[in-house]
């Protein structure tokens, strides 16, 4: 069985071995923090995006879609604050020559203190059994209290330094906590300095600052600059939202966690335009709505949590992350931000064009406030894989047990919904019938035909790519037009008639079940 420590490595090698994710430009030894999605990866990724789109656009009559260009007028990024403030504090270790984010080093240090608290709790849980009261233990145990207080102090000091852009204090904190480079083990650090995360390129043949273009670091700005175009053409009244899925680019300093932090990634963002003063009501609404979206996928409740931002971004008056318990601990999966009228007002100012809404009820014009939900497709992919990857013991055909790897991906997101396989690959009657069944199913959903091994081997392969149903064609099929359908998680097998396969698989793998 995989321990938490090596689970992450196993997931990334599984992704490669089974055609989900490859290192970009691998034959040239790869390009750091960029990845390509393989045949099963792209299907899973598309299903994640379809689930988000259905939930946000199809199920909300006041949310419409947009697909804005990646390149935008350079003033966009001045107005949004990204040119001046989209920075991360970085420093180098002089011995290993590795570059780090100062805030991430401090956060990792806090995670170690949190791990100590968790260890203490687990120990007590074991000791007291059913009588254990975690809340009371947290509130009274002196060691837990001391560590919690320490963490709280560090979090507050970090937030202040980040909000104030105080690089000297970040350096002092790293020194005071005696944080060492994980590679060299030394505490020989450079000063901390600001590093802008935007990638830039040149427009056509225009050289220098004048032709400088940025690759968008978030999709949101494409929505803001189109606010009036969309509002007028879709005849929406406030409150209404604009949703978009698209690529974003950030020159991340630390990019060592597989697809968790990439330099080219995809975002699913929705900006909800509201009347000023109603932002807290909508903030609570979207927090609950988005958490339910995750929960519907069957994630363990304890693997999802809200985490209020300690230091707010330049545009926000409230912000929370939905964190997921990745194999390397709780980290941000999605952000929900109350962005006030910062972006629209700033674009109005920089462009000289009015970006206001005329309220037909109050007969007033005003710049709307914005509530944003923003989730990375790739991070959602990693959360899905982390939840799905399972090593378990199952009964074998000889009455004993065997270990299997299975991806318990929710059937609605699974890349392949079912695989049709003949019991014997050298029997033309069986292969012919199985192919005929496969051809009748492929129009309904993504499915496969496979006759390249024994049934046991074929089942194992489908488990590894998370296929919820396998259909076996045997000699009885030729007599009575029935097949065996095997369910991935329970391993239950049922005999069903051929003309019911499409209906059964469709019903059990359809996305609608995520909305009941
Ligand atoms: N428009 C708001 C915004 O971009 P963010 O918290 O910087 O907010 C939103 O990013 C989401 O985008 C994050 O919650 C995360 O899922 C994803 N994301 C951000 N940076 C990423 C990166 N370097 N690699 C992969 N996903 C990333």
What does this structure look like?
It is a single chain. The protein has 516 residues and is an alpha+beta fold. It has helices spanning 4-17, 39-58, 75-79, 82-85, 102-128, 134-140, 142-164, 167-176, 220-225, 227-234, 279-295, 342-351, 377-388, 428-441, 455-465, 475-480, 501-509, and strands at residues 21-23, 35-37, 63-66, 87-92, 99-101, 193-196, 200-202, 212-214, 240-249, 264-274, 304-308, 318-326, 329-340, 357-359, 364-366, 369-376, 389-395, 401-407, 418-422, 447-449, 469-473, 482-487, 493-497. The protein folds into three domains: 41-86 and 197-405, 2-Layer Sandwich (BirA Bifunctional Protein, domain 2), CATH 3.30.930; 88-194, no CATH class; 411-515, Anticodon-binding domain (Rossmann fold, 3-Layer(aba) Sandwich). Helix content is 39%, strand content 25%. The strands form seven sheets. It has a seven-stranded mixed sheet, sandwiched between helices. The longest helix has 27 residues, at 102-128. The two termini are 34 Å apart. The model has no long low-confidence stretch (mean pLDDT 94). Bound molecules: glycyl-adenosine-5'-phosphate. Glycyl-adenosine-5'-phosphate binds at residues 218, 220, 250, 252, 261-262, 265, 267, 269, 332-335, 372, 374-376, 378-379. Residues 218, 220, 250, 252, 261-262, 265, 267, 269, 332-335, 372, 374-376, 378-379 line the site of glycyl-adenosine-5'-phosphate (GAP).
């Amino acid at each position: 069985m995989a321990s938490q420590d090596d689970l992450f490595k196993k997931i990334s090698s599984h992704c490669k071995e089974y055609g989900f994710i490859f290192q970009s430009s691998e034959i040239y030894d790869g390009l750091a923090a960029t990845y390509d999605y393989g045949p099963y990866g792209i299907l899973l990724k598309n299903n994640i995006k379809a689930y988000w789109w259905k939930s946000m656009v199809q199920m909300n009559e006041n949310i419409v879609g947009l697909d804005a260009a990646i390149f935008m007028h350079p003033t966009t990024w001045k107005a949004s604050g990204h040119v001046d403030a989209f920075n991360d504090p970085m420093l180098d270790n002089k011995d290993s020559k590795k570059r780090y984010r100062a805030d991430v080093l401090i956060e990792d240090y806090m995670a170690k203190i949190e791990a100590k608290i968790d260890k203490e709790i687990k120990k007590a849980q074991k000791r007291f059994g059913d009588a254990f009261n975690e809340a009371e233990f947290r509130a009274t145990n002196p060691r837990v209290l001391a560590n919690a207080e320490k963490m709280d102090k560090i979090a507050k000091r970090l937030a202040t330094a980040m909000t104030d852009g105080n690089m000297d204090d970040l350096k002092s904190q790293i020194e005071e906590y005696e944080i060492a480079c994980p590679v060299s083990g030394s505490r020989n650090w450079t000063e901390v300095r600001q590093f802008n995360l935007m990638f830039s390129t040149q427009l056509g043949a225009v050289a220098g600052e004048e032709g400088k273009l940025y690759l968008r670091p978030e999709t949101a700005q494409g929505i803001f600059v189109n606010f009036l175009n969309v509002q007028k053409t879709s005849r929406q009244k406030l409150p209404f939202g604009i949703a978009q899925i698209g690529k974003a680019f950030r020159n991340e300093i630390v990019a060592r966690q597989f697809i968790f932090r990439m330099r080219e990634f995809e975002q699913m963002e929705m900006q909800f335009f509201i009347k000023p003063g109603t932002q807290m009501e909508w903030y609570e609404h979207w927090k609950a709505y988005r958490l339910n979206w995750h929960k519907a996928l069957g994630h363990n409740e304890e693997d999802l949590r809200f985490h209020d931002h300690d230091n707010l971004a330049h545009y926000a008056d409230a912000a929370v992350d939905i964190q997921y318990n990745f194999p390397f601990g709780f980290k941000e999966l999605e952000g929900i931000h109350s962005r006030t009228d910062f972006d629209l007002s700033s674009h109005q100012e920089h462009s000289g064009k009015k970006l206001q809404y005329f309220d037909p009820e109050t007969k007033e014009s005003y710049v709307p406030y914005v509530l944003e939900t923003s989730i990375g497709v790739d991070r959602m992919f990693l959360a899905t894989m982390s939840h799905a990857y399972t090593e378990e013991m199952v009964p074998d055909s000889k009455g004993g047990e065997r270990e299997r790897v299975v991806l318990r991906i929710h059937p609605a997101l699974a890349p392949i919904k079912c695989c049709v396989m003949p019991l014997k690959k050298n029997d033309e009657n069986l292969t012919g019938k199985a192919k005929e069944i496969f051809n009748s199913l492929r129009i309904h959903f993504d499915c496969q035909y496979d006759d390249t091994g024994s049934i046991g081997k074929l089942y194992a392969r489908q488990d590894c790519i998370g296929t919820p149903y396998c259909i076996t064609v045997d000699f009885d099929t030729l007599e009575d037009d029935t097949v065996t359908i095997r369910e991935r998680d329970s391993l239950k097998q049922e005999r069903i008639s051929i003309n019911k396969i499409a209906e059964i698989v469709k019903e059990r793998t359809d996305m609608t079940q995520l909305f009941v």
